[in-house]
């Protein structure tokens, strides 16, 4: 029987799946790339870290409240400054 595997790094599509699972938001590939700068990730990567996943999930959860990527980005930047341990996974 196969065992569960804990991912260390995520492909773009694996990260999109995590966003869907944890927030119910199904990002298209275009939306994913549009979100990158708002998640404080300067450019696309072949693999995304747990820190990147935490940033995307934070922004996705914020969008349920504020409906603005720019405001979600500001809240993310403040959260990273005040609670960096939440993003050091």
Number of distinct helices = 4
**How is the largest sheet built, in terms of strand order?**
1-2
- Roughly what fraction of the amino acids lie in strands? under 5%
Radius of gyration: 13 Å
Number of distinct beta strands? 2
What oligomerization state is this entry in? single chain
Intertermini distance: 29 Å
Mean pLDDT: 92
User: How much helix, percentage-wise, in residues?
Assistant: 55-70%
What does this structure look like?
This protein is mainly alpha-helical and 89 residues long. The protein contains 4 helices and 2 strands; from the N terminus they run E-H-H-E-H-H. The chain has helices at residues 12-23, 29-35, 50-66, 69-82, and strands at 9-10, 48-49. Strands 1-2 form a two-stranded antiparallel sheet. Helix 1 (12-23) packs across helix 3 and helix 3 packs across helix 4. It is globular and about 30 Å long. The mean pLDDT is 92.
């Amino acid at each position: 029987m196969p065992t569960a595997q804990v991912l260390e790094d995520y492909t773009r599509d694996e990260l999109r799946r995590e966003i869907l699972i944890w927030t119910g938001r199904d990002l298209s590939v275009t939306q994913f790339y549009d979100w990158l700068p708002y998640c404080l990730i300067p450019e696309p990567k072949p693999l995304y870290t747990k820190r990147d996943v935490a940033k995307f999930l934070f922004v996705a959860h914020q969008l349920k409240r504020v409906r603005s990527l720019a405001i979600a980005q500001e809240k993310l930047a403040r959260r990273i400054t005040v609670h960096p341990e939440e993003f050091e996974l």
